[in-house]
């Protein structure tokens, strides 16, 4: 696989906090952004595989949507711990990965969404593919559509993914992070768009900002999509992206609480073909809610509320870019 490395020069978290808060207050009745010591994200309500988002924070954009459109690329198979090695997560530090991708179809036998939540402790096994290493904490969920059309969200034992994945990586340590809250949307931008576009408006292409972390839909409802299994050969190739989005994806409305793992970029001045925002979500109880986050459904009457913890990446890795 081709791996390219792109350093970033992020401003202080306090500077980002003020910009993000202004953007959120233009679209929500109330919002606050502050720099705090990260709480233990292993605990409810977040249930992550490591406690924090600090320690060599970085982001990888792996594969891409071109591996799905106009027809699936079944050669696009990835090992998450090998990706951690590509992201220069050294064996002396361990690695914590969260993010959004596609399920390992080569392990499951079908297509689905993937919410990556994986911690590999320090040791010589970092970046290897041995699935029997003790103390690996794999909280990754697969979100799929059952044959009757109902959604299902459950843990997956595999340490692989397919087609595409957007990952925020760190050593999983506690440290300073952005704490973001927002309630009662009044504008037309969703939560992640407010954050990303606020930074884009301020910095433009001159200083790209890349963030990753977790947010909780604490109240209200949101719309999600879930990829079904791959279409039959007679229904391929996808004629255009509209066919894929309108006639193949399945859409679902879920109420809080839902845990959301997100990666986002304010801009892509180097033309890396980055996916500008990718968020996959899951629930711990109920084995039903989850998928790709689109936007909250504030117009249905119940006030929406969010709480997020994000950190800024100092390095971007573009891995196995289609067509590169």
TrEMBL record:
Assembly and partners are described as: Monomer.
Question: Where's it found, cell-wise?
Answer: Nucleus
Primary place of residence?
A: nucleus
As one GO molecular function, the record gives: hydrolase activity, acting on ester bonds
Top-level taxon of the source organism = Eukaryota
- A cellular-component GO term for this protein: nucleus
Give residue ranges for domain DUF1907. Answer: 19-319
Sorted keywords for this record are:
Hydrolase, Metal-binding, Nucleus, Zinc
Q: What is this protein called?
A: DUF1907 domain-containing protein
InterPro entries the UniProt entry points to: C11orf54_DUF1907 (IPR015021)
Q: Which SMART domains match?
A: DUF1907 (SM01168)
Q: Which organism is it from?
A: Penicillium cataractarum
